[in-house]
Amino acid sequence: MIGMLAILGQVSRVVTIRKDRAQVGVNTFSQTRTPPTTVSSSDSTTLVPTVLAEVHICLSTLPPHPRDFGSNLDPLGRLSSLTLGEGEGSEILDISEEELLFDSVIGLVEDVLMDEDFLKLQKEFMEKYWHEFEDKDENKLSYMDIFKEYIEVIEKHIETSLKTKMAGFSMERFIRLLEDRRDGLEGEVFEMLFTFSDFIAFKEMFLDYRAMKEGTAVDFSSGIQITHLTSS
């Protein structure tokens, strides 16, 4: 019995055991099911056959730990299946792991962006081309060539790094998921990732870098004053 619960615990599923049957609640599903009946130690040995007969969990399709994806799992959205019960009364639930996996990918991306090798590669690329970009509506023909090289060098580095950490990772699909969530994503990590799919974001990145190099970047801190209040 303990071994059974340990396996289910590893896949973050809530197991509810009753004497007449076993129920598995997943996230919101657990809120609609009957509360669990406390199982005494004396009943545990008799309940084991019932649990094994009534609950069949497709472990082969359940996702591993988000940071240890197997090759049998699409790391960006494959559904997990749970079969509840047996026969005609059985119930199959499809649970999307997309959000969990997306958050896990972002965590790995943050690690890559903080890596010294990436920071060095990015700085070298910016130093090589920042003087080409001008804050004008008209875009030079050279911008697109630089953009293509940026994707080939910088994006490829991130993709290669992520593939070493996550089997089956697809940068193309990940970028599509980013675009689908764009309105709700904020922060430097996402701004950086959007430079791979959005030319305007790419150009703005170079313009910001140029402003920093030329000392023309706006320093908002100069408009902030702190006054210490003293009692009269």
UniProtKB/TrEMBL annotation:
Subcellular location, principal: cytoplasm
Subcellular location: Cytoplasm, Cytoskeleton, Cilium basal body; Cytoplasm, Cytoskeleton, Microtubule organizing center, Centrosome; Cytoplasm; Nucleus
GO cellular component terms, semicolon-separated: centrosome; cilium; mitochondrial intermembrane space; nucleus
Highest taxon of the lineage: Eukaryota
Gene Ontology biological-process annotations: maintenance of protein location in nucleus
Pfam families referenced in this protein's UniProt entry, alphabetically: ARL2_Bind_BART
Domain BART, first and last residues per copy: 102-214
Alphabetical list of Gene3D superfamilies matching this protein: ADP-ribosylation factor-like 2-binding protein, domain
Keyword Mitochondrion part of the UniProt annotation: yes
Chain segments annotated as transmembrane: none
Keywords recorded for this protein, A-Z: Cell projection, Cilium, Cytoplasm, Cytoskeleton, Mitochondrion, Nucleus
Family listed: Belongs to the ARL2BP family.
Role description: Plays a role as an effector of the ADP-ribosylation factor-like protein 2, ARL2.
Name of the protein: ADP-ribosylation factor-like protein 2-binding protein
